Amino acid sequence: MVLAEQLPTSDTGEYRCQVNLNIYNSPGCNGLATQAAANRQLRLLSDAPVDGVLKVCLCEDDYPGWLSVEDLARLEPATTRYQAIALSRSEIAHRLPEVIAFTHAAMAEPNYYLWGGTVAPNYDCSGLMQAAFISTRIWLPRDSYQQQAFTQRIAIEELTPGDLVFFGTPEKVNHVGLYLGAGRYIHSSGKEMGRNGIGIDVLSEQGDEVSRSYYQKFHSCGRVVASYQNQG
Asked: Going by C-beta distance under 8 Å and a sequence separation of 6 or more, which residues neighbour residue 44?
């Protein structure tokens, strides 16, 4: 194996992250695609580095990206292959209060909006949703439009705490929040068109400027009824 001097061969074909790692959106490593929290597993999609990076795929959500070879020392062979855990709808519903509690605890910590952020304290919108659900071992896909496609579509009148609310254009979702009840939702929003971090807004024209801005881009609602099963 070309990487033998830098990375031991893994019998499972997967590697475990020993610490939180950045996964980039291009070989130039100019921006984050996502982050891999400690203990997540990944697969290598290339046999040799090109310009100091390797293409990888995170096992839990099938998310691809680029890893700097400097981070190879922070990987170790995974002793077992990642195996997704199937959860029933009732099991998921039982865990939703913990999901909500995670977002409130994250908001209580100093934070700012970070594109690609999925680990504390700084998240992007879908990164916060993914982190909140995985804190109870419920996996969601990585991006907001993927989360919208993955969830069960519901009407706005059917919203209950723990459902997801999506925003964007008629053609594509580009933002997501977690419904809290009483017309409120929690989300991580950007600096230019949001609160530059985690905050609570209202799903109504009656809110402040930020709430109104997002409400005008309201797209749909979704309910998490399954835990994502990776494709291996």
From this structure: 3, 15, 54, 55, 56
Counting Cβ atoms within 10 Å, is residue 157 exposed (0-12), middle (13-18) or buried (19+)?
exposed
Phi, psi dihedrals of residue 197, rounded to the nearest 5°: 145, -165
Tokens representing 169 are 């254009």
| Cβ contacts of 191-195, under 8 Å, gap ≥ 24 | 191/112, 191/113, 194/113, 195/113
The CB density around residue 61, as the number of other CB atoms within 10 Å, is: 21
Structure tokens at 95: 């865990």
pLDDT tens digits for range 92-145: 999 999 999 999 999 999 999 999 999 999 999 999 999 999 999 999 999 999
- Which amino acid makes up residue 145? Y
Cα distance between residue 78 and residue 30, in whole Å: 28
* Residues in contact with 104: Cβ distance below 8 Å, sequence separation at least 6, in sequence order: 186
Q: How far is 91 from 137, CA to CA, in rounded Å?
A: 11
Let me know the angle formed at the C-alpha of 70 by 64 and 76, rounded to the nearest 5 degrees.
Answer: 70
Contact 143, 74 (CB under 8 A): no
**pLDDT tens for each residue of 57-91:** 999 999 999 999 999 999 999 999 999 999 999 99
Cα angle at 75 between 50 and 2, to 5 degrees?
A: 40
Instruction: Read off the pTM.
Output: 0.96
Read off the tokens for 212. 């109104």
Specify the pairing of strand 15-17 against strand 41-44: antiparallel
